[in-house]
Amino acid sequence: MNEELSNVLISKEHPMDDYLREDRLPHIWCSGCGLGTILTSFVSALQKSGLDRDKVAVVSGIGCTGRAAGYLYLDGFHTTHGRAIPFATGLKLGNPELKVVVISGDGDLVAIGGNHFIHAARRNMDITVICVNNFNYGMTSGQMGPTTPTGARTSTSPYGNHEPPFSVPYLAAASGATYVARWTSLHIRRLEDSILEALNKKGFSVVEIISPCPTYYGKKNKMGSALQQMKYYHENSVIRHGSDPAESGIDLGGEIVVGCFINKDKPTFLDSQKRSV
Amino acid sequence: MKLWRKPLDQDRVMIPHGEVHIIIERCKGCELCVTYCPCDVLEMSRIFNAKGYSLPQVDGSKDCVICGLCEMICPEFAIYIEEVSHG
Amino acid sequence: MSRQEIRLSGFGGQGIMTAAHILGKAAALFDQRNVTLTKSYGPESRGGASSALVIMADEDIDYPLLTKLDLLVTMSQEAYTKYIGELSSGGLLIIDRDLVQLDQPRDDIEVRSIPSTRIAADELGRKIVANIVMLGFLAANTDAISKDGLKESVLKSIPKGTEKLNISAFETGYGYGSQ
Amino acid sequence: MANNGILQGSFFMDGDTACAEGALAAGCRFFGGYPITPATEIAERMVLRLPQVDGTYIQMEDEIASMNAVLGASWGGARAMTATSGPGFSLMMENLGLGIMTETPCVVVNVQRGGPSTGMPTLVGQGDMMQARWGSHGDYEIIALAPSSPQELFDLTIRAFNLAEKYRTPVLVMTDETVGHMSERVIIPPPEEIEHYPRRKPDVPPSADYLPYKSEPNSVPPMACAGDGYRVHVTGLTHNEKGYPDTVNLDVQQQMLERLINKIQHNKDDIIELHEDQVEGADIVVVAYGISARTAARPIRLAREMGLKVGLLKLVTVWPFAEERIRELAPKIKAFVVPEINMGQIVLEVERCAAGQTETILVPHAGGGLHKTKDVLATIKKFA
What we know:
The structure holds four protein chains of four kinds.
Chain A: E1 9-10, H1 35-49, E2 56-60, E3 75-78, H2 84-94, E4 99-105, H3 106-112, H4 114-122, E5 128-133, E6 136-137, E7 143-144, H5 168-175, E8 179-184, H6 188-200, E9 205-210, H7 214-220, H8 226-236, E10 237-239, E11 256-263, H9 269-276
Parallel strand pairs in A: 2-3, 2-4, 4-5, 5-9, 8-9, 10-11
Antiparallel strand pairs in A: 6-7, 8-11
Helix pairs in contact in A: 1-6, 3-4, 4-5
Chain B: E1 18-22, H1 32-36, E2 42-48, E3 54-58, H2 69-73, E4 79-83
Antiparallel strand pairs in B: 1-4, 2-3
Chain D: E1 9-14, H1 15-25, E2 28-33, H2 40-49, E3 56-59, H3 63-75, E4 79-84, H4 86-101, E5 106-114, E6 120-124, H5 129-134, E7 143-145, H6 150-167, E8 170-176, H7 177-181, E9 183-188, E10 233-235, H8 250-265, H9 268-271, E11 274-277, E12 284-288, H10 290-305, E13 310-315, E14 317-319, H11 323-329, E15 335-339, H12 346-354, E16 359-363, H13 373-383
Parallel strand pairs in D: 2-3, 2-4, 4-5, 5-8, 7-8, 12-13, 12-15, 15-16
Antiparallel strand pairs in D: 1-9, 5-6, 7-14, 11-13
Helix pairs in contact in D: 1-2, 1-6, 3-4, 10-13, 11-12
């Protein structure tokens, strides 16, 4: 480098490093991928939550988002594909003092792990699930998944996806989740507030976060760079708190309904179990 | 800074000033910070890091007001702001 | 006393498994003998043939399944048909006489019969204790198990509050067998 | 019942119940499972009994979830187990591997039934013995115990928990429908007579340099659980001593895998339990395990009454395999006779170790029942 950056200070450490395994940075995610931003929102929410961080455990499955647990300086478990929720279930029951957070992707949580997702919601297991949805399997180079919009092109839907997708909030709400919200990785402040609400919620709380995959999904569907995908979120997101999750479906190129859809109280698995014995 | 209306107390409020810190090795040149800085403080430089990503820098004519948006939106934990001490 | 093999059989719902468990427990815990109880399972829970094999021995039980059936207790026609061929020569057959017709007579075995279900229903007012009546009758007809042990086992195996009914069932069966 | 909710004394109970009671006596406080014949009675006993000892039972949505819940509970600090049969065992295989890779102590009971596929749900089999050894992908060592009676199922379930903690690994209890469903006398000793190997916690305070997978050769690292303050990272990926993924460094893979294997291999003397009866000086040695060791006793007795010199080598620990003992015996005897309720699995190991120095004869059984005395006896006589 023969030139220097003007008017900036060069640093080696970041204020959030205390919450990160900084010896593993830079992370493996692509330039512009929303995952890093989402992690920032999570750490920020965690700091505000007042939770004892030594009693917070993060569980991930497999995939790009599956690596999240590996960058947070917390007890972290990087499990097998689709199995973060049942692992988290055992962890919570093995030590109910823990705040257990699952951070994983849409393919991991609602395709291969779909059965676990609906059953954990049904029994109101007291865990928080952060589902990062980039509409495809990024880690394996962009195949169609359970949330890929109809018509979208991926490496395994070269003629356009002919299957209808799941809406994660609708699935979560129908299965019995106590807190259901959706944001995009552009809505950083609202996302942070929402994660904070989810962390403080007793029961099965779900925050879905729409996030750009510039390398595969964005490119295959001519959505441009991460920046352009963020602009798309900016122009097409509609905040509708309390709206019916049944109307939260996402069409290719259509609007993205965001907001907090469900926020209710009911007994958790452990509450009901204690009462029944 | 772009303002919709001029605050009545604008001349009495001290606007904080921030210094931009960059961790060169972590930046991946996604430009989110530059795009979303509400004060247009940042711009892309012509300088690359070791992995070939071009890095942001500060346009000296603008002032950072420490809104923290670049820090929040950066996916790389590569940028943060510290307040310039007035002491 | 060396190895004895006893099969209890009937149809699902008669309490055959419970009776077998009480018998096995009596021999294992009160008579202090080695006992192995195995059950025949099929896919159906109700109405199918129900059968359990209780093996008792003073020595180790080196083979836990049937080798030579000494005593067959049966409370259904289907189980009688299925298992009568297993009973070894010189063995004892015990039946509920209202439920089993001896249509395959054998002259190499001994037969004792009792209307256990009718006694339970008519004399004791509870058909459900027919299995306990049968156990009392069994105790009166074999040396394989001690009466006191079996009675003790009945008491330790039944729901609280039903002691009187069950002991009465047991004694009735025993008395019938001692006549 | 002793005052801590653990039974004590003599009982007449079936093997599945004895297994559950053994788990409770060993300190098991979490059970996650899915109903399957003929293992369901274990779950039914656990759901009844766990609340009495402040434990937690959960019926998961399938066996994949059950295996993961058990691993999670173990990392939460609980002694944890699940119980299943063939089809469910197959579903558990991937995450059994996660347990091995992440060195998670837990116990998995397989009450074997006739197979393959749905097979004979209510009848006995021993067809999962090789799956127990190799069912998950990749290289690894596993510990598997095979009980022959309800009493042994009680005792070996306790041993399984202790081995799991000592070697930080999932331990399999490979029982079968006959043992699971047969009732016999089971003696539960007073608590002070029950061995309890506690979970080894790190002897250093939490710090950023803490190495959760510190690698002394052949060693078993202490285990910092979630919530202990060590902020461990646990992954199914190939990882270094810090626990961090390193999926391209061949040295890391070599060191990690060698330790995972050697911690079992180098402690075989401690892990392998054999019961021998008149093996020294025998012409024929019957090698058997589980219910087949039980049914072999009778033909062996009859053969001895005919004057034949027959010994019984019962594999209480099936995996790791007792290769040294088989190698030692091979040149001294006329034949190994191996009755199994499958078409030839453990016999392959015996044959491998016998290495042509003596005959190795399988007495197969397709499943659904036990060996007939005459079949085993005929084989013994033929080679004596």
